[in-house]
Specification:
Distance between the termini: 29 Å
Low-confidence stretches: none
Radius of gyration: 20 Å
Number of helices: 5
Mean pLDDT: 88
Structural class: mainly alpha
Strand content: under 5%
Strand order of the largest sheet: 1-2
Length: about 130
């Protein structure tokens, strides 16, 4: 939700900028068929609806990965897992064998990173960047 708000919300809350302002930048001629678009800087300029959708997918896939990075790290932190195994949390979470979690989340992060890169490349190709 935070990813969507910071991307699709109007400036300064989000990254949507009016077309008149985007047209004054050296990297865009303005929003194509829209009153506002996501174009705060050259590397994050999506000045048509399809590019904005691709940018949203790319950003959402990156934000989805952040908790997985933390769990990937924690799954191999043996001292922390041993400590947590001796707390009341062990009633709900089995901290003794997290290798399967590490393997599964590693695959998910790989897929998410690939989709993240793919949608950025498609967006850049549309702009001929």
């Amino acid at each position: 939700l935070a990813c969507i708000i910071t991307l699709w919300g109007p400036y300064p809350i989000g990254a949507r900028v009016p077309s008149a302002i985007v047209a004054t930048t050296p990297w865009s001629d303005g929003c194509q068929g829209l009153k506002s678009c996501i174009c705060p800087r050259e590397t994050v300029c999506a000045d048509d609806l399809l590019s904005m959708i691709f940018l949203t997918i790319a950003r959402s896939s990156a934000w989805f990965d952040y908790p997985l990075y933390m769990l990937l790290f924690m799954s191999k932190a043996n001292n922390l897992n041993n400590f947590l195994q001796h707390t009341a949390l062990r009633c709900w979470i089995n901290f003794s064998d997290y290798h399967h979690v590490h393997s599964l989340f590693g695959i998910v992060v790989g897929l998410e990173s690939t989709s993240h890169a793919f949608f950025h490349i498609v967006r850049w190709a549309r702009r001929k960047d």
